[in-house]
Amino acid sequence: QVQLVESGGGLVPPGGSLRLSCATSGSIASLNVMDWYRQAPGKQRELVARITSGGSTNYADSVKGRFTISRDNAKNTLYLQMNSLKPEDTAIYYCHTYIFPRNSWGQGTQVTVSS
Question: Which of 22, 64, 70, 75 could bridge 95 with an S-S bond, Cβ 3.0-4.6 Å?
Answer without folding.
Answer: 22
